[in-house]
Amino acid sequence: MLTRHGVRPLGATDLDAFLALASRDPVVNVFTDYRARTTNLEPRWLGGEMWGRFDGGEMVAACHVGANLVPVQATAEDARAFAERALTRGRTVSTIVGPHDAVQVFWNGVAAGWGKPRELRWNQPHLEIRGTPLVAPDPGVRRTTRTDMDELYPACVAMYTEEVGISPEYGGGAELYRARVTQLMNRGWSFARFDEGRLVFKAEVACATPYAAQIQGVWVPPDRRGEGLATAGMAAVVELVRREVAPIVSLYVNNWNDSARRTYAKVGFVETARFATVMF
Q1: What's the whole-model pTM score?
Q2: pLDDT tens across 29-61, in order?
Q3: Which part of the chain is the N-acetyltransferase domain (predicted)?
Q4: Residue at 279 is within a domain
């Protein structure tokens, strides 16, 4: 049943229409496309809901509402409609993330009722690479295995804490976070390079579809930065992912992270959109 402004929760019968919507920009929409394909839009598997906005019976925009709230193909009008619906239920999400303009309009619509965010990150470059990296890949980068966990897990915690500003183990989250690290490893989506048994570079595929894969968690220990490990490591990850996971590799980066942006540019990533993130 449609609510005000043509918004309603989606279900399994809406999957084809949603995938058609996401395919209008399959790289930018890789996260929500992946979530739809792996959950069949069933709320119990989504851990939340996917909302659709309809005009004349056609789905024109959508919004993932789980731990992350992510607008999909949303114009300013769509974002305002999603914000109005969101205000009726209160904030349950920890992050709002996605294309800059839609996130900004959505946030403006809910800010008064959702409380002060922990951090606002505007203008995050969304990058992608569709071909061979511009630099030689590090031949030492490989998929991680369970025998790597003693090195890998602390590195993942350190990366997350540095990037997000709070440990993933905060508030008793260690078990869930370890399960997530293990899940990515088991999927073959966790990559690292080791130097005499010590992890010196890592990165993961966060999500993937037949069209694209999104990279997360790129990290080098502070005392090994500036050696080119991330550049050669990312070139290796791009080659592995393009060959075995998806043809296009994407990620988004903080605008102020000049060293990371230089690294990705050297590898051959180019900016194709701008993201924004609101963190609670």
Answers
A1: 0.93
A2: 999 999 999 999 998 999 999 999 999 999 999
A3: 139-280
A4: no
